[in-house]
Amino acid sequence: MNLNKIFLIGRLTRDPEVKTTSSGQMVCTFGLATNRVWKNQNKEKQEQTDFHNIVLWQRLAEIASQYLKKGSLVLIEGRIQTRSWDDQSGVKKYRTEIIAENIQMGPKTTERIEKNTEEIPIIDEDEQEIDIKDIPF
What we know:
Elements: E1 6-12, E2 17-20, E3 26-39, E4 45-57, H1 58-67, E5 73-86, E6 92-105, H2 110-115
Parallel strand pairs: 4-6
Antiparallel strand pairs: 1-3, 1-5, 2-3, 3-4, 5-6
């Protein structure tokens, strides 16, 4: 059995770019930044940001171009695809993209987020032992 499914929650790194293919299909692309926070062995907070290339087609492309902008929070559900081509000098180039199949938009403005910002707690799995008696089922 094979599965190619991805879920990402992040913020747009640039405004969506919309184009129409020669066959008349609308396509929208943008960058998405996701971050991961953890504590190292010395209990120091670490953070890593990854950047993803997102591609949306047809109706999703239209919706994204209307409602999303740089900084927007969005959940992307889709699949990973790597395509290749030869550049003008004949060198083979590769690009890995997330082909979105569903999207869910976050709040409309970042102002609401900033007003209600609270630190999301980091749950360290090594902090406590879980006693089986404490599980309610």
